[in-house]
Specification:
By secondary structure, this protein is of the alpha/beta class. It has helices at 7-21, 35-48, 59-73, 101-104, 106-119, 148-161, 164-169, 171-177, 182-189, 193-205, 223-236, 255-260, 268-271, 287-294; strands at residues 25-29, 54-56, 93-97, 122-126, 139-141, 209-213, 246-248, 275-279. It is built from 14 helices and 8 strands. The longest helix has 15 residues, at 7-21.
């Protein structure tokens, strides 16, 4: 039961709990706090409590992306992703998938609109529920919920069919994509073959395409989807895999900074802490998040 106390009494109570829990205490941090705070938070656990149980609120996203990249590289050198967002202004084609950009990342939404209006970029939206860029998009693909990976692989199949040189270089990828003929993709996703061909033509004709994906995809808990997006970006960029114009819209303003510190490498649930210390910022805490925390 909570009660009013002085700051010294509060700190003493927390210190007592830390002493009791020791290295069985876990830490869960928001990625909306700056790196300086996260570094101190990390030191509290690793140096003082000798605990390795630490994670971020969006750690699941980090692990999905890392797993997808490992599958893509297959032991090779990982490509550079998440380029400077200002590059969107020079894009001639933008694919937005699984992201409500105006609500979560309005600055990027504005950059996309400027690319369309000033650079005449083609805009492809993939979303099961609604066109997130009405009046701006050239085509809206509305796949059945949970079939985004099938759709992306279907687009990749059409793109690679138009580039024989790439098909010869990536024979294993061709074999995988052979399972995603347009008619089969239509049956799975409910996106028509005509729409698939139209979107794929926009992608294959582009010289500077940006693929932007959001946290709706991480809700599917499918690292193969990340791999599929990497493959599509590679094909659209005509085999240039050192730097892919692939942007992941992260939940926190400092998600990447926290992930780079290695905080999100392990799922905190799998480490079974006996106590939990939360470092919060101006995060929105909803019922779904509270249920996850209780579990």
């Amino acid at each position: 039961e909570l009660k009013t106390c002085s700051i010294d009494e509060a700190l003493a109570a927390v210190a007592t709990k830390f002493a009791e829990l020791g290295n069985s205490c876990g830490g869960l941090t928001s990625t909306r706090v700056p790196n300086e705070a996260i570094i101190q938070f990390q030191k509290l656990f690793t140096d003082t409590l000798k605990s390795k149980i630490i994670d971020t609120f969006d750690g699941k996203d980090a692990r999905l992306i890392s797993s997808g990249i490992r599958q893509y590289t297959n032991g090779g050198r990982p490509p550079e992703v998440d380029p400077d967002i200002e590059g969107i202004l020079k894009a001639d084609c933008v694919l937005v998938i699984g992201a409500n950009i105006d609500r979560t990342h309005p600055v990027i939404g504005n950059l996309i609109r400027r690319a369309v209006s000033q650079n005449h970029a083609k805009l492809i939206v993939v979303d099961s529920n609604r066109d997130v860029f009405p009046l701006w998009s050239d085509i809206w693909l509305k796949p059945e919920t949970g079939t985004d990976r099938v759709l992306i692989n279907g687009l990749a199949k059409i793109v690679i069919n138009t580039n024989k040189a790439l098909a010869e270089m990536k024979q294993e990828l061709c074999r995988v994509l052979s399972l995603y003929e347009a008619d089969k993709v239509t049956v799975k996703t409910s996106v028509s073959e005509n729409q698939l061909q139209t979107a794929a033509k926009m992608l294959s004709r582009s010289k500077n395409c940006y693929i932007i994906y959001g946290n709706k995809l991480s809700e599917q808990n499918d690292s193969d989807l990340v791999t599929a997006l990497l493959n599509l970006a590679y094909l659209v960029q005509n085999g240039n895999e050192e730097r892919l114009n692939l942007i992941f819209l992260k939940q926190g303003v400092n998600s990447q900074g926290a992930w780079d510190l290695g905080i999100a490498n392990k799922d905190i649930k799998s480490q079974k802490p006996r106590g939990l210390y939360l470092l919060l910022s101006d995060d929105t805490i909803n019922d779904g998040w509270l249920e996850w925390l209780k579990s």
